[in-house]
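Q: What changes when S-adenosylmethionine is included in the input?
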Amino acid sequence: MAETALPRSLDEFADRHALDAETRGLFAQYDERLLETAAHTNVISRNTLPDRWARHYEDSAQLFPLIREDATTLLDIGSGAGFPGLVLGILCRDRPLKITLADSVGKKARFLAETAHALGLSNITVSSDRVESFHVKRMSFDVITARAVTALDGLLALASPLLAPGGMLIFPKGARADEELTAAATGWRFNHEKRASHTDPDASILILTEPERR
Ligand SMILES: C[S@@+](CC[C@H](N)C(=O)[O-])C[C@H]1O[C@@H](n2cnc3c(N)ncnc32)[C@H](O)[C@@H]1O
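A: The predicted holo structure follows.
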């Protein structure tokens, strides 16, 4: 993606990603529901909403090119109001990719389920269970994302038992990514790549494969 100014509106976001009319319409519906719900329910930090097209939609959409086209299952841990999982659900809806959005806070899971249903996103399933319960069910996913959920070592404990062989973990991280990598490496072995985030010069995106407890 060329480094152009970050989007401040749906139109700028749609232009940046060359969205067709249908996809633009889905983002419009999502955003309408987000604003309407956030006005009375705590599904997202309200003070981030004025900047949401860069801070939430674009920050999520930048993960789309990282998802392998042959992936068939994706889990977003702690989706909140759908970042990044619901954004990826819209962008990947024509792929054979089943997306699970997990958030253990009932009102967030309800917002996600109602929005996915209203947008006709049959590729999305929503769970209000804690993802720890997925471990017992031996669920597994080709790609696991999580944004702003917990530090890397905690994410590895949550996600690695759920990762299919050959799968990838994609974790957007803030300015402490290197510290988190160092801390996580005391308990875990993993391959990693650190990509620059294009929404925030201090942030990065960690891509991890083959995580294993030491
Ligand atoms: C700070 S919010 C981030 C939401 C969203 N990913 C974002 O970046 O806007 C963290 C979310 O993770 C959820 N969460 C934390 N631990 C979880 C777990 N073990 N299982 C499911 N959801 C969890 C919380 O309920 C919360 O909604």
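Observations recorded in class: The first strand starts at residue 73 and ends at 77.
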